[in-house]
Amino acid sequence: MSQKRKNITLLIILLLLSATTVLVYISGGKAHRIDVDERLFALGENTVITTVHIQGPDVNNHFEYVGQTWTVNDKFEMDVSMRDVLFAVLSKVEIRRPVPREISDSVSSMLKSRGIKVSIQNGQELIREFLVGGDSQKTSTYFMSTVDDVPYIMVIPGYQSYIAGIFEVKENDWRNRFILSVNWTNLQTVQIDYLKDPSRNFKLQYTDDFFKIEGQPELDSARVLDYIEELSLIQVNKFLEENEIKKYDSLASTSPLIRISIESIGNNYNLEFFPLLTDDRYQLARLNNTSLVLFNLTGLNPVFKKAEDFIKEDQ
């Protein structure tokens, strides 16, 4: 056989193989295709919701829109960034494909026994309700409606992320991290007590038409207002669960070094700061005599002032 005839034969075989592959792909695709809305679980662009309830073996969080604010378990204001992440997931999540048949039954059983139930409402109207779970490596997320046994693998287009993780977050991590709702119009007093050196103590108090410190000359208004703004921007790095980190539990049993007491119209706050641990980048504090919280050290630098820091330089 000449080389020319060999080339023609090989070309014909290649074309036949290509055609066969296309036919198998098309017929196979039709045989396994399941007609399902990829946005079956997602919220529509104009969907109005007032309540989200997330309940599972290790979580029980109730979010509700009350008076212009989302609340957490009727106790705390919701963290804005966490709220935005949750709503982004609920609006963008899509079905990638049904769970493969060979593991569908086991995934369905897992979701029924250990899954997290997510219920979304507008008033009394139930908008969505489904079960959420993930694989053991926390790489795939499964959703399944509470009215059938068909689990799906879920994705957010353009992102490689473990979607189920947002539903596994504990109560404290949903809390608003900006803990002091103060500004110059509602602030009454700020008292800082240096418990190891009382000579540094001072009280910034609103009197007549501006703030004063007893025993000090006229204060620099710009410095005072800058300080009040710094207080309003104090942000907790983490709210600690009871017995969550042993070293901080031990530290909290010691005496605090600094106490900041704040009175504002409608709210009072108390922060007690404990000594720094060696090579630790977090500062432990107790908020309102109850919650243990961690602050990033750099965020606290502007807060620990002395009375002299507010005095006008020309005095």
Topology:
Elements: H1 3-32, E1 51-55, E2 60-66, E3 69-72, E4 76-77, H2 80-92, E5 94-98, H3 101-114, E6 116-122, E7 125-134, E8 141-145, E9 151-155, E10 187-194, E11 202-207, E12 210-213, H4 221-232, E13 238-239, H5 246-252, E14 258-264, E15 267-273, E16 282-287, E17 291-296, H6 297-300
Antiparallel strand pairs: 1-2, 1-6, 2-3, 3-4, 5-9, 6-7, 7-8, 8-9, 10-11, 10-14, 11-12, 13-17, 14-15, 15-16, 16-17
Walkthrough of the structure:
The protein has 315 residues and is α+β, with helices and mostly antiparallel strands. The chain folds into 2 domains: 51-174, no CATH class; 187-310, no CATH class. Helix content is 25%, strand content 30%. It is built from 6 helices and 17 strands. The chain has helices at 3-32, 80-92, 101-114, 221-232, 246-252, 297-300; strands at residues 51-55, 60-66, 69-72, 76-77, 94-98, 116-122, 125-134, 141-145, 151-155, 187-194, 202-207, 210-213, 238-239, 258-264, 267-273, 282-287, 291-296. Strands 4-3-2-1-6-7-8-9-5 form a 9-stranded antiparallel beta sheet. Strands 12-11-10-14-15-16-17-13 form an 8-stranded antiparallel beta sheet, sandwiched between helices. The protein is elongated.
